[in-house]
Design a protein that fits this description.
Largest sheet: 6 strands, parallel
Distance between the termini: 26 Å
Shape: globular
Helix content: 40-55%
Strand content: 15-25%
Order of helices and strands: HHHHEHEHEEEHEHEHEEEEEHEH
Structural class: alpha/beta
Number of strands: 13
Bound molecules: ligand 2YC
Mean pLDDT: 95
Length: 283
């Protein structure tokens, strides 16, 4: 999991409107709309729920410690979406206690290993990796005008890529898994294939692994989700003038020249879609 740096996130809060417009242009949906799509919720249904759902964002000093602007940025995204959210005055245990005493409905906090949202009523733990993967899968689905029946490449079979692949498979896509560690892709394929409803006793597997026979190379795939922490994971050579890329991976897996080529069909951010998807998932 890539640890964010302050310089990655310290302009997010002031640019949320601009980013929202960019998402509408690319996906047809706002940041909240993408998050609802990721969670299978309707905007009209969640809007009244959001207004009542107070969230405490608790800074955590564990491990490598505070990332300056992290908690403020998370709270800003939540407020932008319509949640009553704020950062606790205190940190760690004291911050958690402060949030409980303030009667919040949800808490968001992160150490170096997990960034989670906690619904205090349902006791659900909502993981950033899972909901970032689903949020970007939803964004790709929207950019593609629906992935059902289409081939989608998922590069990187870690927690984010796995969640994205699961969402895309459930949306009816033919998912091709790519990972530098081939067994990781095979393991995920087996996990996902097992979950497809079997038909006449034979598992319908719409998930395949790059390199297996009759599986297209990435240059043959029009819709790509990059869930790797690698700067050049998506080489320029695979980008055509119709390629769409959803890239939760940090750093961005598309090069500056590649970015030039597909800018209007590339969705990438450092926190927004993940936080928005987590927030809707709390409701
Ligand atoms: O400021 C704080 O409360 C810090 N404890 C926050 C640490 C976040 C560490 N995680 C990351 O940088 C990111 C997550 C946002 C998702 C993956 N890595």
């Amino acid at each position: 999991m890539t640890r964010l740096k302050t310089c990655d996130i310290d302009t997010i809060a002031e640019n949320l409107d601009t980013y929202n417009v960019e998402l509408i242009e690319k996906t047809g949906q706002s940041l909240l709309g993408v998050a609802c799509h990721a969670c299978g919720r309707k905007l009209s249904e969640i809007t009244p729920l959001m207004e009542e759902f107070t969230v405490g964002v608790v800074p955590v000093t564990a491990g490598q410690g505070i990332i300056t602007t992290f908690s403020h940025t998370v709270a800003s995204i939540l407020v932008y979406l319509g949640f009553p959210a704020s950062v606790t005055e205190a940190m760690d245990t004291s911050g958690l206690a402060e949030a409980f005493e303030a009667g919040v409905r949800g808490i968001m906090m992160s150490d170096d290993n997990r960034f989670v949202a906690l619904n205090l009523n349902t006791q659900r733990v909502i993981d950033n990796s899972v909901f970032t993967g689903r949020g970007y899968a939803a964004a790709l689905d929207l950019m593609a005008g629906g992935v059902k029946g289409k081939t989608v490449g998922v590069v990187g079979c870690g927690p984010v890529g796995s969640a994205a692949a699961g969402w895309l498979m459930n949306a009816g896509a033919h998912v091709v898994l790519y990972d530098v560690v081939a067994p990781a892709a095979r393991l995920l394929r087996d996990l996902l294939s097992g979950s497809v409803n079997s038909d006449s006793g034979k598992t319908l597997s719409r998930v395949s692994v790059a390199g297996d026979d009759k599986v297209p190379g990435l240059d043959q795939v029009r819709y790509i989700l990059d869930a790797t922490p690698v700067a050049n994971a998506i080489p320029d050579t695979v980008l055509s003038d119709t390629t769409c890329v959803a890239a939760p991976g940090v750093p961005l897996g598309v090069s500056p020249t590649g970015y030039e080529k597909i800018a209007s069909r590339l969705v990438h951010d450092k926190l927004e879609i993940g936080v928005a998807s987590m927030a809707v998932a709390m409701l």
